[in-house]
Design a protein that fits this description.
The complex is a heterodimer. Chain A is α/β, with parallel strands linked by helices. Chain A contains 8 helices and 12 strands. Chain A folds into 2 domains: about 180 residues, Rossmann fold; about 70 residues, no CATH class. In chain A, about 55% of the residues are buried. Chain B has 17 helices and 4 strands. Chain B is globular. The two termini of chain B are about 10 Å apart. Classes of the chains: A alpha/beta, B mainly alpha.
Chain lengths: ~260, ~450
């Protein structure tokens, strides 16, 4: 895997009126690695993600993708680059089946008519390439799926479109133990396929289990971007709550270890 | 929700689902959208499961229709006659066409209360241009249809841009359009009040029959078309290595349609006139025994119904636009994130709804051979909404088909017709209103309850 970051943000500022939410944030995503983005409530995680996805535009700073500076003004721009966001509140339609959801907005046509069988085939292929075997039929309505299965479908949807970067917003927040393990396994496999994966989570166990490196936001600044191997849970909690570590080698530089 | 993944998560990477249906697979089968099975027996088993899981579709409506037809036939000799069969087809066509448009609005969880009077305004435009200016039927009908499209566009913009709830927009327009229809009928060149239709083509829509051969041709085209669609879908699935419908089910479906449509044409091609014996008539000053002209053949309006049914079914189930309508109805936010222009879809359903209101309005006018505002009053719209909901279209959005409008429309028409025969003379309309109202409430209850049940079992 290349060590060159695929997505790189440098010195990002974003404010809403008088409130400065992001204050010179640096952030990098490397292909083939899972980058966890952690931070307490209000640290600026969702704002950062919305800047990446184009929902918000950045006030200043540089946004580079595959080494080139780019401007992202809308979610459409981001998905054109190959950045997919899987939201916490799962953007799936209950009344549609898995195939219909995975291809929603990008349906395959022959002439005027939907090419159902080819879409079904591709959905099957994508799911089995991700080793997803918990879904009995891709023609099941999403309403009949469990939380873990829905999360799986949402993630597989991102993969189907040959995305290069997948950002997962709290993918395990509402899941039980077994389903969490399932989704984390899937997150790992995404990275193994060479995608840059960003995992936003409050769950330290999940983060330490699956992440390759960890970016910690603290009050709008990047407290640290460190290798997973360099921190333990206690240090991570300290970084999140205080923004630094006492007398440690990973002590809070804005430029993280892996960037 | 039942726990579906009981397997150890680590196992999922290596193992396939165990053979033999588990609870989760049963549930999965119930919730599928494309129905496939290896054998006819399996197909039937899955179908029964789906129904028991709360996904009843049009089944309650079909059951109700059979009960009502049997009931009225026993109670009322005139109900079961062939004449009344043709009569119900023409009488019911207006509300069914309105209901077809309303299905689009209902799929988005919207409602169009103004559809009835929108149809009235369109019919008034048509008849004014006809009697006041003597314009030919393509122009008068065309103007009515364009009027419908403009009305729908206005409703759509008020709903999606100004963001007034559709209930309020269309309730206001329900009142306003009643006034507009009255105004057009009472002013301008030509006759006023209840304006009689003078154009023979417009009259023929509801009052003339196709030649017998054309009826047979229509039936054959329907059967061949249906078989072609079914078989080509099966071939496409087989090519991708997917399971399709078992042959026996396919044959049963196509055969069922063939029997039903050929039988219908056969019955309608009989002379169904009530007066078949020669009667004494004054012809040029002399009294002669004259045989009345026969009433035989498929009414032209059936062709109109079939065409719109096929077109809208195709649009809803086979095109990208149709998929987006269901998506917006199911989860607006998800649709928006998928890049669907939600406002455009929302506006478009009102355009289709009002366009179909115009078509229905023209048919109602043709049926009674005149345009008067009262023919489009309150119950016209409610019967159409009732038709869609009774057929199985959800008031909550995301669920519904064109077939619902047709089956539900048949139920509504049978009630209207059967009741009016049954209670003739003795407060006919009061009983009719009460029964139709109760049936509508019943349908809405089934809708709400099956939705709750579906929620409980995890089905949509």
């Amino acid at each position: 895997m290349s060590d060159q970051p695929i997505l790189e943000l440098h010195d990002i500022y974003k404010s809403f009126g008088p409130v400065d939410v992001l204050k010179g944030v640096d952030f990098a995503v490397t292909p083939g690695r899972v980058t966890a983005l952690v931070g307490d409530n209000g640290a600026g995680k969702s704002t950062l993600v919305k800047c990446i996805s184009g929902t918000y535009s950045i006030d200043s700073g540089t946004y580079s993708f595959e080494g080139r500076p780019v401007t992202v003004h809308s979610p459409r721009d981001a998905s054109a680059l190959g950045i997919e966001i899987v939201y916490q509140d799962l953007a799936l339609c209950d009344n549609l089946d898995i195939v219909q959801n995975m291809f929603l907005g990008r349906e395959r046509l022959t002439g005027l008519v939907l090419d159902e069988s080819s879409m079904e085939q591709s959905a099957n292929e994508t799911l089995s390439s991700l080793s997803v075997r918990t879904v009995t039929s891709v023609r099941q309505r999403v309403a009949s799926l469990s939380g873990g299965q829905r999360q799986t479908v949402a993630i597989a949807k991102a993969v189907l479109w040959n995305s290069k970067v997948v950002i997962l917003d709290e993918p395990t927040a509402a899941l039980g133990v077994a389903q969490t393990a399932q989704v984390l396994g899937l997150v790992r496999r995404l990275a193994d396929r060479g995608l840059g994966v960003v995992l936003i989570s409050h769950n330290m166990t999940d983060v330490l289990q699956v992440a390759d490196n960890i970016a910690v936001l603290y009050l709008g600044q990047m407290a640290a971007q460190v290798e997973r191997a360099d921190v333990n849970q206690q240090q991570l909690v300290e970084l999140i709550t205080t923004g630094g570590l006492e007398g440690s080698s990973v002590n809070g530089g804005r430029t993280g270890a892996s960037a | 929700m039942t726990s579906v993944d009981q397997d150890d998560p680590r196992e999922t990477e290596t193992t396939l689902p165990s053979p033999g249906p588990t609870a989760s697979e049963e549930l999965a089968a119930v919730a599928t959208t494309v129905h496939s099975a290896n054998t006819g027996r399996e197909y039937v088993r899955l179908y029964v499961q789906r129904v028991r899981g709360g996904e009843m579709g049009s089944l309650p409506a079909i059951a109700g229709l059979i009960v009502l037809v049997v009931l009225f036939s026993l109670l009322q000799p005139t109900f079961r006659g062939l004449y009344n069969f043709g009569n119900m087809l023409t009488e019911g066509s207006g509300p069914v066409l309105l209901a077809m448009g309303l299905v689009f609005a209902l799929l988005l969880g919207e409602i169009d209360l103004s559809a009835g009077f929108a149809g009235g305004v369109c019919a008034a435009v048509m008849v004014r241009l006809m009697v006041g200016y003597g314009l030919p039927w393509p122009v008068t009908i065309g103007s009515a249809l364009v009027t419908g499209i403009v009305i729908g566009f206005a409703i759509g913009l008020l709903r999606s841009k100004v963001r007034i709830p559709s209930f309020v927009v269309t309730l206001a327009l329900f009142l306003a359009f009643q006034g507009v229809a009255l105004y057009i009928l009472d002013n301008g060149k030509g006759a006023h009040g209840d304006v009689r239709i003078t154009d023979n083509v417009v009259l023929a829509l509801e009052n003339a029959q196709m030649p017998k051969w054309a009826g047979w041709l229509l039936a054959v085209l329907c059967i061949v078309g249906y078989a072609y669609v079914k078989l080509s879908a099966l071939r496409a699935r087989k090519r991708q290595g997917l399971r399709g419908e078992p042959t026996v089910i396919l044959v049963a479906k196509i055969g069922g349609l063939a029997v039903a449509s050929l039988l219908t044409v056969f019955l309608l091609n009989q002379n169904r006139s009530i007066n078949q014996k020669p009667i004494l008539t004054n012809v040029d000053g002399t009294i002669k025994l004259v045989t009345p002209p026969p009433v035989e053949g498929v009414p032209w309006v059936v062709l109109v119904l079939v065409v719109f049914f096929v077109v809208w079914t195709f649009v809803l189930s086979r095109t990208r636009y149709g998929r987006h309508v269901y998506a917006v109805g199911g989860n607006e936010e998800a649709a928006r994130r998928a890049g669907i222009t939600v406002d455009r879809v929302r506006t478009s359903v009102f355009v289709i709804c009002s366009f179909m209101a115009a078509v229905g309005g023209i048919m109602i006018a043709s049926n009674v051979a005149a345009v008067s505002a009262q023919n489009y009053a309150g119950n016209t719209l409610l019967l159409a909404v009732g038709a869609a909901v009774i057929g199985g279209t959800s008031l909550f959005g995301g669920k519904g088909r064109m077939l619902d409008a047709v089956i539900g429309g048949a139920v509504v028409e049978v009630i209207q017709n059967g009741m009016s025969n049954l209670v003739q003379g003795t407060n006919g309309s009061s009983v009719q209103y009460m029964v139709t109202g109760v049936v509508l409430l019943l349908a809405a209850s089934i809708d709400a309850l099956s939705r709750r049940r579906a929620g409980a079992t995890g089905l949509g």
